[in-house]
Amino acid sequence: METNNTKTMRQSKTRTTTESALLIALATILGMFAVFKLPNGGSVTIGSMIPIMLISMKYPFGWSLLSAFAYSLIQMMSGFYAPPVENLLYYSLMIALDYVVAFSVLCLAGPLLRAFNKVMPERMAMLFAVVFCFALRFLCHFASGIIIWGVYAPPGQAVWLYSLLYNGTYMLGEAIVSGAILLVAGPQLLKILRSGNN
To answer: Is 158 left (phi over 0), alpha (psi -120 to 50) or beta?
Structure first.
């Protein structure tokens, strides 16, 4: 016979899985509404990264890492751009830098929020967590731009500068949109999400 404790744990696991799946689906849908889109990948959306970061802010690190990784695979399947030089190394690096690592770093939003929240109000801590996560994601795309996509750099322009300008354009815009949304409504969104456990 199932004990009350076992039943509660099973219900909690079901809620976590369902809630995370819905947030991942929401992130995917928001990603389809691009305010600005570049030809070789990269866009400014209406806060598509926020649901993934909210998962991280509510749930333990291991679960948020798994959720962010799942989202990275969805991103890869829904908008894969083949590298200009088609060999196994370039494919592997592009998959890692432009998708898996770039989106999986969003799982750090929760640990960063909890760390920053010790020294500043939650709203500001949330903003700093977002900025840090986007900085890490930018570094992934920046490296990819140098290693893989540098062949598209205009003649005479340094590859690193091309990658900085190309990736910086949409990543800065995406960070500003996400940061503004969370600065205004972040604590309320997180409170609503956490209240679902009550």
So the answer is: beta
